[in-house]
Design brief:
With about 675 residues, the chain is mainly beta. The protein has 4 helices and 40 strands.
Length: about 675
């Protein structure tokens, strides 16, 4: 019987009974897939079986020096599927190999969208074929699968695709009848491992059961046996593919055990951080009469709530070599919960608030937190959301009492769940701020401190996130303490958001948004215009070198990166230009949002152009000193042909003319109608 870990990397994949359009094994043709003519072509291997894009060779392959120099440019191949119309949920399995160095990414391209939605990516090289799975959500509009391969610059690098396999259902579904085993993998252990059972193998193991799918000895299932267990608590793990989209519903499977004692069979959900959550455990409490179920297939249904990517882990622990055998078959998932009594997945957005229209679901016993706004000016910072909207402030005026506590109480959150709280705070004034802000978790009558501010930067909006677990229904409370008039430091809060799961997991989801760039990890595909400007945009963190101009921190976190034009080495009228990657045309409207900072007595111009075939069309412009705050700009446009977005900053009359940009987003569809009403308080109410 072949071990499972060898079968998962089998060189061939047998076609399932149901393969959807878009599937291809590249036996003799590419099944309607095409290479984007603007990029390096994918090549069908001369013997078929796979397509590949290779690192380009040097100009003279026979020259030894050229060979040692390596490739002179980077290759990118774009493989496009035919238009697909699949209204039901489906699973795409990709068999691929990255040889040497390089990357492979799978995206989904919708009509009318300038950016493709990322589904999966990898930069891990391998010596053999690898299987990856990704869920394709039900969709009412046609789409294309985009496969982007980038071989590395090292000689001999290549990215190849062996098979594209699209089948109905979820990627968690598996009956183990195909050699790829639906992307399930065995987590290797020196003594106990999951193996493929069935398929006539009972000739060697007469005590092996019939499979559940076909109820005969030719079908397949997965099993693990204790016969090779040598130490106490030997553990074998069967791991599903990682889910690629949020999922909630019912996980079903069939299992059987040959022995009641000597083994512990559990099912877990494991996230990308390696954190486990137990979903189910086999035991006497699950079955009323073990004598009737030992050696028989037993159905199990368990609710799975996964707002972030997880793997289902089937784990068996043996305490001795006589722990028997455990088998699993016919794993499936349904979007309906197993029980009608199961509560739907909680929507944590009830705790979100940008305070533009009020306090949302936040309350306070005494009016200590006040909602204020600041019109754009060169003295005081505005809100974080738009630079001209509303936010909350504690200790914003002298209290008749010598000391007081400001408490802002959030809505009730269900218990037994993990949450990620994100918000922005800003320290104001000149007094002490040691107790300016803390966050507590209120459960029943007790309060537990889960965060306290330690950042001393003033006058900027600083992002923070807090991961916390609730054991029972709880509320988040923002607390600011003022002991006396001389010990109080004003603090502001804005843009509170709540999500399910660890903050590290939800941060990874936000990084994959198409068309978004916060410049935290570089330019995100944007590039300097070396032909039509006098200098470059500079990637910077913290304040700019020249006083009384430029931001003190970025917009994304307050402590991160942004792009800015440093005016000092430039002459008046000189410019810097930043180009987006080429964007596809669309018949519909597009919405561009970004934040800009224009502070300094000599500030020049900031313009946004649409570059079509080398001709600039002006979309938006702003000139002169605007505010000490980051301001949000919203631009709606339409272009039915390929184009680029250009951000152009022009130096003003003096060195105090730094201009900065941050947090660019580009979405399909018209921009929402968002109007800011600055008549909520005045700047005199701030300090």
């Amino acid at each position: 019987m072949l071990p499972f870990y060898l079968l998962t990397l089998a060189a061939t994949i047998q076609a399932q009974n149901q393969l959807l359009p878009g599937s291809c094994n590249f036996e003799s043709n590419i099944c309607g897939y095409t290479s984007d003519a603007d990029f390096t072509s994918w090549t069908l291997h001369k013997d078929g079986r796979f397509v590949a894009v290779d690192a380009p060779l040097t100009s003279d392959q026979g020259d030894e020096k050229s060979a040692q120099a390596g490739p002179q440019r980077e290759a990118t191949g774009i493989l496009l599927s035919p238009a697909l119309e699949q209204s039901e949920w489906s699973c795409l399995r990709l068999v691929y190999q990255i040889l040497g160095s390089g990357s492979l990414e799978v995206l989904q391209r919708m009509e009318g969208k300038s950016f493709d939605r990322p589904l999966w990516s990898s930069q891990e090289p391998s010596d053999s074929w690898v299987i990856s799975s990704m869920d394709l959500q039900n969709n009412t509009e046609p789409y294309r699968v985009v496969i982007e391969g980038k071989p590395g610059r090292s000689s001999g690098s290549s990215v190849a695709v062996f098979e594209i396999h699209i089948s109905p259902g979820y990627c968690l579904d598996c009956d183990f009848e195909e050699s790829h085993l639906c992307g399930y993998s065995n987590q290797w252990n020196a003594n106990v491992n999951w193996y493929v059972g069935g398929g006539g193998g009972q000739l060697l193991h007469n005590n092996m059961p019939d499979d559940h799918t076909f109820n005969n000895r030719t079908g397949h299932f997965m099993y693990v046996d204790s016969v090779y267990a040598k130490t106490f608590k030997e553990v074998a793990r069967l791991v599903s593919p990682m889910t690629s989209v949020p999922m909630s519903g019912c996980l079903s499977f069939q299992y059987q055990r040959s022995e009641e004692r000597g083994n512990l069979f559990s099912v877990f959900a494991r996230d990308r951080l390696g954190q486990y959550q137990e979903l189910w455990r086999a035991g006497p409490e699950n079955q009323s009469d073990w004598a009737t179920v030992l050696g028989e297939w037993v159905p199990v249904q368990v609710d799975l709530k996964a707002p972030y990517s997880v793997q289902a882990v089937f784990e068996v622990a043996f305490s001795n070599p006589r722990g028997g055998r455990v088998a699993v078959d016919d794993i499936s998932f349904s979007s309906e919960f197993c029980s009608k009594d199961t509560e739907p997945t909680f929507d944590p957005s009830i705790a979100n608030c940008d305070f533009e229209s009020g306090f949302c679901h936040y309350t306070q016993d005494q009016v200590m937190w006040r909602r204020v706004s600041v019109k754009p000016n060169i003295f005081r910072n505005g809100d974080h959301t738009t630079g001209a909207g509303s936010f909350l402030m504690a200790h914003s005026q002298v209290s008749p009492r010598s000391g007081y506590v400001s408490q802002l109480v959030g809505p009730t959150l269900p218990g037994n769940m993990k949450y990620c709280l994100r918000f922005f705070f800003s320290l104001r004034g000149f007094n002490q701020t040691d107790q300016a802000l803390a966050v507590y978790l209120q459960q029943n009558s007790t309060q537990e401190k889960i965060w306290t501010q330690g950042e001393k930067s003033r006058g900027i909006w600083v992002a923070t996130d807090v991961t916390f677990q609730t054991s029972q229904p709880a509320k988040v409370v923002f607390v600011s303490i003022c002991r006396n008039l001389w010990d109080c430091g004003s603090v502001a809060v804005d843009d509170i958001s709540m999500s399910l799961g660890d903050c590290e997991l939800t941060a990874a989801l936000s990084l994959s948004l198409p068309g978004h760039c916060d410049f935290e990890a570089g330019l995100c595909g944007y590039s300097q215009d070396a032909l039509n400007d006098a200098a470059d945009w500079e990637w910077r963190r913290g304040p700019t070198p020249t006083s009384y101009t430029g931001p003190r921190g970025d917009h994304t976190t307050g402590l991160g990166y942004y792009l800015h034009m440093e005016a000092s080495p430039m002459l008046p009228g000189q410019n810097v230009r930043l180009l987006s990657r080429p964007l596809r045309g669309s018949r519909g409207r597009q919405c561009l949002r970004f934040y800009y900072h224009m502070y300094g007595s000599g500030t020049g111009q900031l313009r946004v152009h649409l570059d079509k075939d080398g001709e600039d069309v002006l979309l938006w412009q702003q000139g002169g000193e605007q505010s000490v705050a980051w301001l949000r700009a919203t631009v709606e446009y339409q272009s039915d042909s390929q184009h680029q977005i250009v951000f152009e900053a022009t130096r003003g009359s003096s060195v105090r003319s730094d201009i900065a940009i941050d947090d660019i987003t580009l979405d399909g569809g018209p921009c929402p109608a968002t109007e800011i009403n600055p008549a909520v308080g005045t700047s005199n109410e701030i300090e």
